[in-house]
Amino acid sequence: MPHIDYFFATISPYTYLAGTRLEEIAAAHGATIAYKPLDIITLFDRTGGVRPAARHESRKDYRLQELRRQSVKARLKLNMQPKFWPTNPAPSSYAIISAARAGGGDLAGLVHGFTRACWAEERNIAEDEVVKDLLAAHGFDPKLADSGLLTSAETYAANLEEAVSRGAFGAPFYIVGDERFWGQDRLDDLDLYLAGKL
């Protein structure tokens, strides 16, 4: 059975634009998924990337064009400059880690719910009320937002270290064995790889 390690950031627009395609691909190939939220800004710093605010104007302009095009292709509403971005990704990431540990709810829906809240619904995913609401909406106990914070923080940090050690440098990033796929626009390649065609 193939296994996909999924490194992502809850404040990443490209993680949002991936929608639930990863889960559809995994289901088609009988693959398992390990959800690994991480600190994308620190990942950039550690792997030679440039923080969005520090990029050259030409790169900033291109990013906006690309986000617009990709949102149309994905048929997902996208606020190009959301009210609560950037925001602290740790609370939402901790909640996902706690939810994965607890089980019983829709983890994929929760991940997408956080990114949608940030990029399409003008909600601050760093706020406790928003985190608890999204946990409950996806079948998890909202009290998970207040429990196991130390363990979740340790896992969050470990996810970053694992991402760096395995060659990830952006989000979303999908790893199957030694094969790496960067970006939601490489999901078709992941699909082909799992089908044995790449």
Describe the structure.
- The protein has helices at about 15, 20-30, 40-45, 55-75, 90-100, 105-120, 130-135, 150-165, 185-195, and strands spanning about 5-10, 30-35, 175, 180.
- The chain contains nine helices and four strands; from the N terminus they run βααβααααααββα.
- The chain has a single domain (about 5-195), classed as Glutaredoxin (3-Layer(aba) Sandwich), CATH 3.40.30.10.
- The protein is of the alpha+beta class.
- A hairpin with a 2-residue loop joins strand 3 (about 175) and strand 4.
- The two termini are about 15 Å apart.
- Helices cover about 50% and strands about 10% of the residues.
- Helix 2 runs parallel beside helix 9 and helix 5 (about 90-100) runs parallel beside helix 7.
- Strands 2-1-3-4 form a four-stranded mixed beta sheet.
Distance between the termini: 17 Å
Number of strands: 4
Helical proportion?
A: 40-55%
Shape from CA axes? globular
What's the name of the CATH homologous superfamily? Answer: Glutaredoxin
Order of helices and strands: EHHEHHHHHHEEH
Radius of gyration: 16 Å
Task: Specify the biggest β-sheet.
Answer: 4 strands, mixed
Content of β-strand: 5-15%
Would you state the CATH class? Answer: Alpha Beta
Strand order of the largest sheet: 2-1-3-4
Residue ranges: pLDDT <50 for 5 or more in a row? Answer: none
The chain-level mean pLDDT equals: 97
